[in-house]
Task: structure prediction
Amino acid sequence: MSFRSIKLPLFSVLLLWLLAAIPLTAMAQSDGASTEAKPRIVAVNDTHDFGEVAEGAKVTHTFTIRNEGDAELRIIGAKGT
Result:
């Protein structure tokens, strides 16, 4: 019985190693045992219909949000669309 050595480019070796490591990291992260406290933002109503509005009229609406997580919720900025 004879053995032949196989020469692979470094890129191929790294690519094979990366493809083998991806499922292992996914399994490690999905064990469900995470006890890290996280914030969870919840909007009471996430849409509002102003109906018909006259051109130039100013309308406002206040959206109520709350934190249902177990860590501090910090809102750094907000922007309407």
Remarks:
- The mean pLDDT is 78.
- Strands lie at 41-43, 65-67.
